[in-house]
Amino acid sequence: MLTLLDHPLLFCPFVILFLFLGSLLGAWVRVRRAEVVARDAGSFKALEGAVLGLFALLLGFSFAMAVNRYDLRRQLEVEEANAIGTTWLRTDTLLEPARTAERQLLQQYVPVRLNFVAAGTDAQAIQRSLTQSGELQAQIWKIAAGDASARRDPISALFVSSLNDMIDVTEKRTAALENRIPFLAWAILLFMAFVSSALIGISITSRSKRLLAILPIVVGVVFALILDLDSSRSGFIRVHQNSMMRVAAQIASSR
């Protein structure tokens, strides 16, 4: 299940099949317990409406959570690009040899940050990028601290401030990429969807399996969309690194 949550294309048919089995179970109950279903038809309808309403509410909350997480990742990509760009521009305020040293380190830093997202679901590549980012940040900060200690003026403080923002946003992006809809929430959604499908199977009097498949297909597609939005490192809906690429091009052209 944890593997399926990393692959929306595999998760979708799994959900459809799982819910279709729920619909078939409901249809089986309707046939085997026809007298009970007919006698308590009103109760089944009320229960069906309540469960479907609650399921729709949970589905709406999950979709909103996924969209908010996607928007946050997109905003943080722009924020990091701005922080790096500002830090690069403020290297002009440094004295030599700190200016040249900082620029060389920043030229190495941007590709590492791009690789952090491009690593996808490769855990080793992600950890390698984080390690390299931390090492470069430590070197950049050491030089900046030395320059600020020697000068002790407001101009050097500007560079330290932008550098601090650049380092802080690294952890923000890492946390945003790791922050996903909890597994327990997915389990509850699947349970609610299964119960809803079973109740639909009980209420549909037609023996057509096509009708029984409508809800599983619709819910499966919606689940795949939510999972795709929530998956920061896989799927089709991903945050593009356009702002970071522009900063990389700006730094490359300033050499």
TrEMBL record:
Transmembrane segments: 9-29, 49-67, 183-205, 211-229
InterPro entries in alphabetical order: DUF4239
The entry's keywords: Membrane, Transmembrane, Transmembrane helix
Domain of life: Bacteria
Protein name: DUF4239 domain-containing protein
